[in-house]
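tool=predict chain=A
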Amino acid sequence: MKNTKLCPKCGSCDIIVVSMRKTVSTIIPIGFTMAGCVGLSRYVCGECGYTEEWIVNRDDIERIRSKFSNKQNQKN
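tool=predict ok
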């Protein structure tokens, strides 16, 4: 929805962008403080309610990869 501006479920172009401040429900914790967290934005279809979450800052993707990819490999 972020890139196409269309809902992948129903095809509607009524997309609501909810950019949120960092709270417990809108972050991915990477460190021990809020500064060490990755912020998310939600994209909501105004027609059917389908929702997607996207990382606000692309640079944070590598931070997530560094934090979690080693843990996934250790479990396998």
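The two ends are 33 Å apart (CA to CA). The beta strands are 15-19, 27-29, 37-45, 51-55.
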